[in-house]
Amino acid sequence: QMCIRDSTHIEEMLKLKALDQYKDQLLASVTHELRTPLNCIIPMITEVIDDPRIPELPKELSLKPALNSAQLLMNIVNDILDYSRYKRNKLTLNFGEFDLQEKMEEIYRLFEIQCKHLSLIHI
């Protein structure tokens, strides 16, 4: 706890608290705005990947990495929303199983694409 002896400090603390609340509101607003297009993009890419008329090579080289990137961005957006919920004491945890090997392969593919794009590797 802090002992405030000067009214200037109180005013500064109130301003900082207001700025912190504004930051939290802005983060929540921006993340909700990002979710809207992502909720459209992810199903559309999934639909194209599932289309048997599309050859496998473009799916593997472009569509699946694009889907993984969109899902990664959605996870980041959800993490920010979780932080917002945490700040308001409204966070709930959901436990579930996942395939660690599959997740590691997804991460590897995303890094591989980025490294190729940045000319860090030549495959």
Give the topology.
Elements: H1 7-50, H2 56-87, H3 100-117
Helix pairs in contact: 1-2
What is the compact description of this entry?
With 123 residues, the chain is an all-alpha fold.
Describe this structure in words.
The chain contains 3 helices and no strands. The protein has 123 residues and is mainly α. The protein starts with 6 loop residues before the first helix and ends in a 6-residue tail after the last helix. The protein has helices at residues 7-50, 56-87, 100-117. Helix 1 runs antiparallel to helix 2 (56-87). The chain is elongated.
Distance linking N and C termini:
57 Å
Low-confidence stretches: none
Radius of gyration using CA atoms only = 21 Å
Shape: elongated
In total, the number of strands is 0
Global mean pLDDT: 86
Q: Please report which band the strand proportion falls in: under 5%, 5-15%, 15-25%, 25-35%, 35-45% or over 45%.
A: under 5%
Contiguous helical run count:
3
Q: Structural class, please? A: mainly alpha
Helical content band: over 70%
SSE ordering: HHH
Largest sheet: none
